[in-house]
Records
---
Amino acid sequence: MNTDGRSLTWPVFRDCGLGRNDDSSQAIWRGTVSRVKHVATLRQSRHHTRGPVSTMIRKSLFPLAFIAASALPATAAAPPFETAAPVAYMVDLSSGAVLYSKDPDRRIPPASMAKMMTTHLAFHMIKRGEAKLAQMCQVRPETWRQWHGPQAGSTMFLSPGEQVSVENLLHGIVTLSGNDATVVLAECLAGTEPAYAALMNAEAKRLGMTNSNFGNTNGWPDN
């Protein structure tokens, strides 16, 4: 034990939360160190009679720990959180605990979040051997006419008749949020976009997404 008493008392007061800069904690700490220094002095002067000193040290710690715990303020409650978003949902993925929820069952357009299911399904098909990253897909002229220009939102700037791999289409969806890429991918892997959307809904059902429905592959308003 050090003569300043810290090695003896620090584990107790660290666990109690002392050592902070508030006045009550500092006062308790100074009083504790002073008291333990006195005990340490007795121990050094009576090192041949270790039993009584050890007993005295043990007895002194229990009331000190009680005083320290009593002086600590109660743990502050988490501050309230509000958001202007009409719908919000936050989950701790490590434990599954719902951290925040606001009108979680309201149905709203998914917008580009639909592309997460579009890409998830594509990777699922690749895993099952139903598609390949190197598979080439052709951009249909009618698809290009619908999904190019400012009115088409974000795109990966595909050209009519262009040959693009599944891998590059996935890059175009994930990194550029390409609306054109989702439709070309769907037509390549399922024949038509509605057919791919049906596969997306089947996959959503398999995953337990009972309150979700996908009308297309990119989340563009379909009404």
---
Amino acid sequence: MRFSKFRRHTQAPESMDPLHVLVIDDDEVMNFLFGRAISSFALNCKFHCFTTGEAGLAYLGETDRFPDVILLDYQLPKMDGFDFLLEYEKRGYHQAHQILFFMLSSFSRKELAEPLSTFEFVEGFIEKPLTPIKLQELLVNYFPAIKKKVER
């Protein structure tokens, strides 16, 4: 995982806008666990998950509020993660919205490093399994204000 100059959100939890998290992964059990984990430590969070890239893109095309974080699985049915990234870029979403974007995969970082590097808006790569604890650490790193609830 690389950490770039993504702007950290440091305001107090009470004043934070809801943290919007979008997960696109065909593992419905993990999606459920991520939703439960996020709601347990994020004070104010909206969590959306989809099991296909097409459904995730449809959501992005219809929403008034883009997510703060997107976690995208590489291996998806029909449209894989790279096809999703190509379409996301083609639609110009990467220029219109600053989003913390991570690719998830059980493949090694080495296998995906070169193709993933062509998408500069992708913050990094996370090797699966992404556990709820790893997810919490990731979000607290970029959104320190939620740490206050985690420490309670």
---
Amino acid sequence: EYLAHHNTKPKPFIWTRSARDILQKVIRANQRLSSKQNGTLHYLLHTTGELCLSPVGLSAMNRLSPANMASLIMGMWFFASATGNFAAGLIAAATGAEGADGADPREVVMGVYSTVGWTAIVVGVVMLVIAPLIGRLMHLETLRDDQVGLAGQGELAGPDAAGTGLRSETRS
């Protein structure tokens, strides 16, 4: 009833605020949050992003790898994830030693994150340059779905197994 009522006179979403107003509200909300709440929110968003990325990336690696190397490629995916976590630990250690040698702690942190930022930009540009080559090497035109249905569905049970032919089954 609710959907029928609202589908007869649909109202499209219209932005009533500018991007500047929205960003100002986000900044004000961020200032009201305590550092503990802010940290929890960032942790939640990063974890959600990682949980969304990991299965998609692992599936792509499995699908693009040759059949005899699938396990090795999946292991490399997890190794890359571990390497990223190790690098994050190194960055945290570098910023955690702020002021150890008498330097301004803000300068130490800005120096570390400036290095990380410029490195990320250089790696991004390199990846953009080599992306067409990698695309050709993946042979995406050869991928097709040979299996229709669930993977391993044929191995689950024989054709006469209980629960597969419900029309012929009767209760006793």
---
Amino acid sequence: MSSHTLKIGLIIIIALSLFTLFSEEVSTPVTDENRLSDNDILAEFNGGKILRKDLDAKISKLPPQIQGRYKTVDSQIQILDIMATEDVFFAEAISRNIDKDPIVLERLDRAKRQFFIQEYYKRFVADAVVITEQAREKYYSDNIKSFFISPYLSINYIQAENEVAALAALNELKAGTPFEEVSEKYNQNTYAKGLKGKVKNIRLNGQIPGVGDDPELDAYISQSTVDPNTFHGPYQTKTGWHIFSTLERVEGRQRPYAEVADDINSRLRPVMEKELLDMIVENLKQKYSVTVDTLLVKDLNLQEKVTDENILNKKLVDSPNADLVFTVRQILDIYSKMPPQEQMFHSKSGANSLITQELSRNLMFLDSEGRNFETVLENNEDYIQTKRYHILQEAYKRLVVDAIQV
């Protein structure tokens, strides 16, 4: 679920909790089935009104899997009640200047920053990338091996306990004993045994499903011909004793350019966007006189606890603009607040990836402030809803949660 959908859901929960608190201020909704105009007034209250198009817009923002529940008149009245209650409660929050509260303003500043960065990236990176036919053809030529479909084989396979068991199994197979019976009796490989000895999707890349890394066995399989009644082995490799017959072999093929054009677009776009973003960031670093202490960055271990104040206060990134300065303390603090998956990514790729990420975001935000992005937010529905959410969240805390006495 997206964060936007989550916020819609939380607002609805808040509104439901407060419905009885402000219900006397909400008028009876209009439910005349003959009123089909988008501008039909469905509800009016002191300070506002709700139109049919507002109701439709609210329902359209609910998760797709539950929108179908709100096609009936009764369910739409329920949403309409929630909307009216939410609007009344929002008006109450504004009257109490909750929208000007420092806590709310701080949250809105963070939201504004995120929207600015997203808009900056959209304008100057995503929308600026144009994938030409020439670029696609070059990418195909440079990465032609990645468009090769590897061959794959299917085999009947037994991994025996030792040479004696392997020879015994082979003799029974040659004597005409059904393969499934021999596999059940001698197969020590639980993966293959569970599949009645049939192992599929062998890609001739040294990795055998259920066996693991075994280039030697892979080579034996590669040299075999398709014949379910011809058994090969027993072969001893680093993974044990093996007997097999080849059931199927589908040869590999090179996918032609025309077949992979769409695939190339999806692969090439992120590459081109990264190249363009890297170039923009380098230009912004020059514009704002940013310097990076590469030696200090290289030596920084994100997973190592640092207690030396002198080290913590050292500048990894410096600039005349304070918003572009990063100390060791700041980077370690950012890292400590990240989800485990992000921490794992940056710990493997090194501190440079985290510093580059944070510096790039700050550069884009700083540069966006001089480009009149404020006008973008005025009509941005996501930002308007986010702002509303934060105001309602704080109002709910003050007027309801903090007022509860246990």
